[in-house]
Design goal:
There is one protein chain. The chain is of the alpha/beta class. It folds into four domains: 9-154 and 227-391, TIM Barrel, CATH 3.20.20; 157-221, no CATH class; 400-600, Class I glutamine amidotransferase (GATase) domain (Rossmann fold), CATH 3.40.50.880; 613-669, Sandwich (Immunoglobulin-like). The protein is built from 17 helices and 28 strands. Helix 10 (287-300) packs across helix 14 and helix 14 packs across helix 17 (586-600). It is globular and about 75 Å long. The two termini are 37 Å apart. Bound molecules: zinc ion. The site of zinc ion has 8 residues, from helix 6. The site of zinc ion (ZN) has 8 residues, from helix 6.
Length: 671
């Protein structure tokens, strides 16, 4: 049983080893002035801790830990295994990855290790063993931060060997493997396990990595395998820590939008808490980080840690406009609104050198607290000091679930035809945005989650349907659930082999339709769609649908299939199953989602929707906290529902009717 983190964390990555020891005390005073209470340390210090194999010097880290402990900081201790020292590459070149193009990488950058290379695993575990033994008893360490932002792939000889073993476990026999990979196509039969080679650009894959493959079963298995090997390396570090410290939570930080190469749903069970690095760009619409936060929260159906974000600029994006007054506070509170129990930054002190020296920080190069950014951080610290204890551990409750599935993500984007524009995340976001705009809370779940807790389950582009899923969805709908899916659904099994007898394969009876073929449009082409009184448009694909029990909700109004079904609805048992055969234009999709929500009897948190984000967290004592966020540069109206009977948790005053640009309120009902 792990000891949960007892405080709302406000802090971030701190690298005092880049600075003279005399300056650390002053740094800590500045952090305290901003009410910062936590620091993540030792994330990239392997080379500093160990000048050669088997040699360690922890004196500097000891001093850092002592100084932060004396100041009563909560410490998140990194394991430093995400950037290898130069000596390790020199001594064991096989620790470097072989990339998709077949090139062995030399020393450089970070996130550069092969997850299966024996020398890497042995020496990473040795470092972690020394760290955990040394610091396990420090009560200020509230969590262990393993490695960093796992990602990428390796195609080396160690990985190839491990892949063959992984396949033997998965398939047992080559007959099963050959059937799964459809190797009778293009003379691909495998007769001996050692004939299997990695699917890189020199083999069965082509185009940018992850985009095209000749043998989808092989490429899907390689992505499953690589994600599993990264996870296995993570588990090696985690169990090494736990041998010394079984109580303190252990995690790694997830990242990206979301990271395609790591199946976070498979990893979640090995994370004691989900931690997420959030870096929306200046032009990222607000619903996108909201979607990612909902995904992170739903991985364990628990609050998560916002592990990294920037207090001002992001140096690695193409453009880094300054955050406008109020923007930093509002966007950090957006993460909290969606379930974060921390606000943490990369970085607490801006580096003088290296690739992230122009990334924002609490202590900037100016090295003074008399800056606009510091002033904003100080104010946020005051707010979090009041809000944090009230919000810690409170939950978000959703009646709508949006399915996001990594195997489906991989398979859909590998599809050879019938359009090259299958961008899974973008297509999922079409639907997410509909609920976001209505302030309908959404969980972003896996295909293995329990559907029964939701009134509506939306699974767009559910191309890959693994065994048992269709039965579970059917039972859910028969029992009164409402389900929606779209074109491309139900086409293939877990190895990307087509279900015969008409699309959408095992979902046909649930949906009460079958699909004969699908028209695939070039970018500028659309089909007209008649939906109730409205004429809207469809793009990307248009399925030619045969209803078999389903009611027609919308029809095509152009092309040779005009008059046939574009959207259907099937009553089955106590519930309904909807099928959307084309990518509806936003107005059409909005009208359809109104119908679907009405059928499922789901309403948003506000009926009045003036373009502000409203979410709710509920504390164990039943107290509800409403986050009302104006995530725009223009003023907006307070939703009418909050005009009376609510107070601002920070000021205890009723909220004003107008919200300033980037206003972010946390409201609760008056007693
Ligand atoms: Zn490798």
């Amino acid at each position: 049983m792990k000891t949960p983190i007892k405080d709302f964390l406000y802090g971030g990555d701190y690298n005092p080893d880049q600075w003279p020891q005399e300056s650390w005390g002053e740094d800590i005073q500045v952090f305290k002035q901003a009410k910062i209470n936590s620091a993540t340390i030792n994330v990239f210090s392997w080379a500093a801790l160990s000048p050669a194999e088997g040699e360690y010097d922890f004196s500097k880290l000891d001093a850092i830990v002592d100084e932060l402990s004396a100041a009563d900081f909560k410490i998140i201790m990194g394991t430093s295994t995400a950037a290898m020292p130069a000596w390790l590459f020199k001594k064991y070149p096989e620790v470097g990855r072989v990339d998709y193009q077949g090139r062995r990488h030399v020393f450089g950058q970070r996130h550069n290790f092969c997850p299966t290379a024996p020398a890497y695993r042995r020496l990473a575990a040795d470092l972690v063993d020394h760290l955990a033994a040394r610091y396990a008893d420090n009560p200020h360490i509230v969590a262990w931060h393993v490695n960093n932002e796992y990602g990428g792939t390796c195609y080396c000889e160690h990985c190839q060997q491990a892949f063959r073993g992984w396949l033997k476990d998965r398939y047992q026999t080559l007959d099963r493997l050959n059937a799964a990979w459809a190797t009778s196509v293009w003379s691909h039969q495998i007769y001996h396990w050692d004939e299997i080679v990695v699917p890189n650009e020199l083999g069965d894959a082509w185009g940018p990595e992850g985009s095209h493959t000749i043998v989808a079963g092989l490429s899907l298995d390689y992505l499953r395998f690589q994600s599993a090997m990264m996870q296995d390396e993570y588990r090696l570090e985690k169990t090494t820590i736990e041998a010394h410290d079984p109580q303190t939570p252990v995690f790694t930080n997830f990242h990206s939008t979301p990271n395609k190469l790591i199946d976070y749903q498979a990893w979640a069970k090995d994370q004691d808490v989900i931690a997420y690095d959030s870096y929306p760009a200046y032009d990222t619409p607000a619903y996108q980080p909201a979607f990612l936060y909902d995904l992170m929260r739903s991985l364990k159906h628990q609050p998560f840690l916002l592990m990294e974000s920037t207090p001002s600029q992001v140096n690695w994006q193409p453009y880094s406009p300054l955050k406008r007054p109020g923007q930093m506070r509002a966007t950090e509170l957006q993460a909290v609104a969606h379930g974060a129990d921390s606000v943490q930054f990369f970085q607490l002190k801006q580096a003088r050198g290296g690739s992230e020296k122009f990334h924002g920080a609490v202590i900037s190069h100016a090295q003074t607290t008399k800056t606009r950014a510091f002033n904003d951080l100080e104010k946020l610290g005051d707010d979090l000091e009041k809000l944090g204890p009230q919000l810690l551990g409170s939950t978000n409750q959703a009646k709508v679930a949006l399915v996001f599935d990594w195997a489906n993500y991989w398979a859909l984007e590998y599809v050879a035809g019938i359009t090259q524009d299958l961008d899974y995340c973008q297509l999922i976001l079409d639907y997410y945005r509909q609920f976001y705009d209505r302030n309908v809370p959404v969980d972003v779940i896996s295909v293995d989650d329990d559907f029964s807790q939701y009134d509506l389950v939306v699974a767009p582009y559910l191309y890959l349907v693994k065994p048992g899923l269709a039965d579970r969805l059917t039972a859910y709908v028969k029992g009164g659930g409402h389900f929606l899916t779209t074109m491309m659904a139900g086409m293939v099994d877990e190895n990307d082999n087509v279900y015969l007898g008409g699309y959408p394969g095992p979902l046909k009876e649930l949906l009460g339709i079958w699909v004969e073929e699908s028209d695939a449009f070039p970018p500028a082409q659309e089909v007209k769609v008649a939906l109730g009184q409205q004429t809207t448009a469809g793009s990307l694909l248009a399925d030619l649908i045969h209803p078999e029990g389903a009611e027609v909700v919308a029809t095509y109004a152009s092309e040779f299939y005009a008059g046939t079904a574009a959207v259907t609805k099937h009553q089955l048992g106590q519930g309904t199953a909807w099928y959307v055969g084309t990518r509806l234009a936003p107005a059409g999709l909005s009208a359809l989602i109104d119908q679907v929500l009405a059928a499922a009897k789901v309403t948003g948190l506000t009926a009045d929707q003036p373009g502000v984000e409203v979410t709710k967290r509920v504390q164990k004592d039943g107290q509800s906290y409403y986050f009302v966020l104006n995530l725009t540069n223009q003023s907006a109206s307070l939703p009418k529902e909050f005009a009376q009977g609510y107070v601002d948790c920070l000021t205890n005053q009723a909220p004003a009717a107008r919200l300033a640009p980037w206003a972010a309120l946390v409201l609760k009902k008056t007693n």
